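input
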Amino acid sequence: MNAADTGFMIISSALVMLMVPGLALFYGGLVQRRNVLSSTMHSFVLLGIASVVWAVIGYSIAFGDDIGGLVGNLKYALLSGVGMEVKTDADTIPHVVFMVFQCMFACLTPALISGAYAERIRFKSMALFSLLWLLIVYCPLAHWVWGGGWLAGLGALDFAGGAVVHMSSGAAALACAHVLGPRMALAHGDTAPHNLPLTVLGAGLLWFGWFGFNAGSALAASPLAGNALATTQMATAAAMLGWLLVESRHSGKPTTLGAASGALAGLVAITPAAGFVTPQAALFIGFIGGVVCYGGVVLKRKLGYDDALDVVGIHGVGGTWGALATGLFASLAVNPAGADGLFQGNPGQLGVQAVSVAATWIFSYGASRVILAAIGVVSPVRASEDEEALGLDITGHNENAYRLY
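output
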């Protein structure tokens, strides 16, 4: 047991928790005024739903003893055996602290998906979808990558959640957009963000919390955590500039929303690579991440799906690029527990990363479609036309975000 590592991980857990209300602000500013509370609730309520699911069975599915490379057993159900002792002889932090750190990831990931179905999903359907998605998709995928499952055995590298968090949420977001269809407001061109300063504040909190997300994934107050801190900052800064550059060339002017979105794209892109690459490589990963994520957002209009708040374009595309970039730039000199990538003479690692990308997209998208179909049998998933026209703040929660006199 190490007191410095324990304190560092407690702080990192709190930083990741802060990302959830940060995301609520980021998304809340992007929707129309009549849906800001609905969008905020999508993120905030998951701190409750996901934490309880994680404690009851989710943590055990993700980190219990391996069953066939697919899921963990139920040894940690209801947090049995998860106490103040270390988890294994190699750990330096209490088991319960590790559990809470991973719990914050489980709270954030389904909240990311909510940007795709914003302004048109019933709250009860959202809550049920999130609960089932955590159990059926997130927890098994976390086991595949971090809990000793088949992707870990294959050698896939995912330092802080490129596959587990971002690609999985991006694929689920695409499924939600396909199933729910476009917003009514989209036909009228009435989808402009109602409060961009709120979005920028949310982006700043996400950037701040992401240091806990990435550096904390080192699981110790160590040089590796310092490297992850540096790669996170460099990639995010470069991605913002990359996004603004291509946006200026494409649409004529750099925008505030573009700066916030570009920063988020960089945070996503560096997540799987943060503890495996150098800060110099992170600059390249981030810059290209900003460019390709901008392209991913533009592409949705050509493909005809309504991903309301660009979850697919940023988290799906950015996570995919980051996973593949890990296969290019990873270095054993940075992390002896990882692997060398293509540019260090190991082309096979890029192939392994490509397999993890394909597996994550296929599994998350397919399972999400099945979950939505099952919920639709029981209750309508999408709000009615009248509810959508009035706004989900009133029809879903009987509240108004603003009182204007």
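quick obs: The chain is about 70% helix and 0% strand.
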